[in-house]
Write a sequence for this structure.
């Protein structure tokens, strides 16, 4: 009898230790699996799938607008956050180039403006350096259905 009670105690202790160990993300319980977090995948695309937004910026929905019709899509999106403005400007210059945007102009100062273009898209990024937070305004326009500048002027 003494041997059986020791065996039961050992089984109970083993069960308690097994319950305390973390489950691996690959356990098939049907729920959403956590993805590996890296610096790059924490940044996000918002309304346009080729304008990357840094994770430090928060979207301001009450100050943003988008228009989407059959000829074009346009958006004025506002973000703010506590960031170093020079790092923010460098982030946009690097990542817009990675998404095949060509920088057409850059004005740097208390209010900086970066301008980019693609085949059927234009984007202006304005960064306002204020005391507490940086404010970023992105104005983007994309033509659709073969619409080009010459078609729009007709």
């Amino acid at each position: 009898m003494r041997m059986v009670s020791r065996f039961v105690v050992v089984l109970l202790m083993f069960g308690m230790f097994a319950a305390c160990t973390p489950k691996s993300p690959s356990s098939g319980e049907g729920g959403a699996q956590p993805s590996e977090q890296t610096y790059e995948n924490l940044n996000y695309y918002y309304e346009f799938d080729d304008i990357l937004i840094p994770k430090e910026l928060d979207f301001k929905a009450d100050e943003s607008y988008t228009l989407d019709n059959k000829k074009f899509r346009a958006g004025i999106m506002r973000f703010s956050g506590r960031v170093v403005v020079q790092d923010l400007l460098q982030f946009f210059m690097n990542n817009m180039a990675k998404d095949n945007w060509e920088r057409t102009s850059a004005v740097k100062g208390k209010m900086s403006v970066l301008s980019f273009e693609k085949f059927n898209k234009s984007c202006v990024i304005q960064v306002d350096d204020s005391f507490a937070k940086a404010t970023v305004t992105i104005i983007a326009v994309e033509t659709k259905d073969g619409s080009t500048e010459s078609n729009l002027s007709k």
Residues 2-20 form the longest helix (19 residues).
